[in-house]
Structure prediction request, 378 residues.
Amino acid sequence: MMPSDERKHFKVPSDLVQIPIVWSYELLKYLRSWRIVAAIAIVIAMLALLYLLPPALGQPYNGTDVNESIWVEDFATLNVTMPGMLVPQSFGAINRSVVDLDTLQLFVNGTPYPSNSGMNWIFLELSFAEELPSFMGGSPKLNAVIFMENLTGSAVTATYDWTTSKADFDSLFLSFVSILVIVCATFFAADALVGEFQNRTGYLIFPNPVKREVLFMGKLGASMTAGIIVILLFYGGLAALSYATVGGVDDDFNLSLAFALEFLLAATAVGYLISSLLKGTTGATVLTFLLFMIILPIVDGVSSFAGVKLEASLTFAANVMTYVIMDPYPVDTSVDMFGYTIYSFYPTPASAAITMFAYAVVSIAISMFLFRRKQLSG
Prediction:
């Protein structure tokens, strides 16, 4: 028992003091349940597999192509004008990200064919962002050799050193960031609120002089902290691999990280909303995972056939994490295939940021309101 004089002067800590206490205990709970360790293990496995599998399957990140055949076509098919130059007659594509021009040698019918200061051929990087939509496996850029004479039908080969561009290398990994964010939302948010009711721990916590809002903010802070640790570890590992393999990261790498953290906040908030609505941890966990992995992606996919751009879809907006490092940024396109018109939509960075922010704010507000009113039963 606390002496009467001590009880008289004892004061309950303020809300700002209580939030970090709840925060730290929730983080400790994640550590004891091995959830953070499991998420970190997933990060390491993802980085290792994505880095090692392409070379193991015959797709290295750099190398030398010797006597690589170049398919030559009539330049008129490009529909590109080049003022101030000799009129090009034909062109050929080199299907590599970055070509070392100092090592580029061309041969026509086995005979060396030098550039001759651009009189015979020049090397250009052409942009086709609208003509080559990503769902067709196209690239927004094309490495082309422009010939000043018509070499269609000739046996043209090339020898050169090449490497994967920073954007291509990083995008290989960043296309899987959304999966990692979904794992974090499932691990750290889906059962954060409903667990207190299902496991009856609320009987011990709620009678204490701690406001529900304090519990909510402390839990949310812990969930975000755990998720941020995982996301930063992934981006840090990717940066290390990118510097070691292609000499650096893309210029918009940090912007992709910022969007990933915003998506993490939005996905975590939606996980909290689901946790405040359902009555069981299993249902909340399964629904959170299925919502982001199956339900919303299916809706996004159907929109490609329906011709409707779903700016309000959270998973659609999250794709900006990968698209932002593409140069030029992809634009909406459509193509007719097999009697159907298939659309390829891309969120703009501004609209994606607004959508994810709206999901975060609305979901947090609703879930906090429901958590305050929810009562223990049984």
Summary: The first strand starts at residue 62 and ends at 70.
